[in-house]
Amino acid sequence: MERHFDEELKNLKQKLLQMADTAQGMIGLAVRALTERKEPLAGEVFALEEKVNAAEIEIEEEVLRLLAVRQPAARDLRLLTAILKINNDLERVADQAENIAEIAVLLLKEPPLKPVIDIPKMAALSQRMIKNGIDAFVKHDASLAKAVCEDDDAVDRINDQRFRELLTTMIADPKSVTRAVDLILVGRNLERIADHATNISEDVIFIEEGKNIKHHLQEKPEASS
Amino acid sequence: MERHFDEELKNLKQKLLQMADTAQGMIGLAVRALTERKEPLAGEVFALEEKVNAAEIEIEEEVLRLLAVRQPAARDLRLLTAILKINNDLERVADQAENIAEIAVLLLKEPPLKPVIDIPKMAALSQRMIKNGIDAFVKHDASLAKAVCEDDDAVDRINDQRFRELLTTMIADPKSVTRAVDLILVGRNLERIADHATNISEDVIFIEEGKNIKHHLQEKPEASS
Fold first, then answer.
1. Which residues on A lie below 8 Å from B56 (Cβ)?
2. Distance of alpha carbon A76 from alpha carbon A2, whole angstroms
3. Tell me: the pLDDT tens digits for B179-211?
4. Domain containing B80: what range?
5. Number of domains present in the structure of chain B
6. How far is CA B20 from CA A208, B16, B27, B92, in A?
7. What is the least distance, in Å, from the CA of B203 to any CA of chain A?
8. Test the B interface: residue of A67, A178, A192 with most B CBs within 10 Å
9. Closest partner residue to A177 among B54, B71, B171, by Cβ?
């Protein structure tokens, strides 16, 4: 029975890894649709979004089944509830990537506004954050999870700077307004992806160290359970 | 033992109701800070955000404790995992309200851009959605939960229209750019609050009808558990 549960957990983690891979791939495709001006890549993102939605439901139902049938305690329980939350975060990452792809489709109807070097940079950072967050989860690596939280600050900094630049662009050239606002929204989407990766990492730190670092509260003793 | 568990669940629902009340109040205060140009109201929002963060952690730890100690099955299990998710959604609603209050503080440094009648309208709708979503949860009312999903379409429609209006304003008057972008971001925050209320309602429908309506998939038989 124990052996069987270990196997089930392993399969579940495998599904979560696949979902994270897909979500990461969607970020890359959506950003390339925008920066390389390739509309078909946006279409790939929309197709993958359906796949992620189906994976989310499948993983959630499997977690509920395991909670009911295996009645896990302590660490396994914490693991399963973390999977529920990570699953939810990954689905929202995919939603954000879908938003970027939708904006890309709109932007491709207009001439390019200006070089968007900061978008690929933010995208690469947030992809790395998702990857490291999930790796930290699978490899029980709390210090990798903490590195993800630091990357989040870098994403925020880049986004704040480009936000100000785009405001300046719009003020100087009213014809740029619609496109600049769209680029601001893409920045917000990438910022939110980074936030979801941060949530995942906080869950990992909670599992590994038994403490909740969310909202930067003081360390507190593990809940009695 | 059963009686005791019922009592514990009741207390937990009570805490969730309180948190929802606070989050709803924060939306109202943040929007009033902006529309009535009253900066102290933004300060109240920041104080309440701390309270919501503490409540989220408390509720999460209580759910984990109950899962471990009570080992609930079937319906109670689904209820507890839904509380975990609703808890998370409410905390994110509070985050969005905090964002609105932050933008309000910035906007109050400048003269008002134009009447913002659509913002109170969107805020009132999204507050009602949170209230109805939580009421649907506590009263096991799937049809109320479905009404919430319909309200979401109304919020999206209002937001799309004001988004287009604000683009037009910026194009006509470059001096309005910074303020108009801030107002666009407030609209996005309210739209996200409505999305969280929709998530909550989808969880309620899942508990009450045992099926997952997320992503508008076809009805599927209940997971075997």
1. 214-215
2. 11
3. 999 999 999 999 999 999 999 999 899 888 876
4. 2-216
5. 1
6. 30, 6, 11, 11
7. 12
8. A67
9. B171
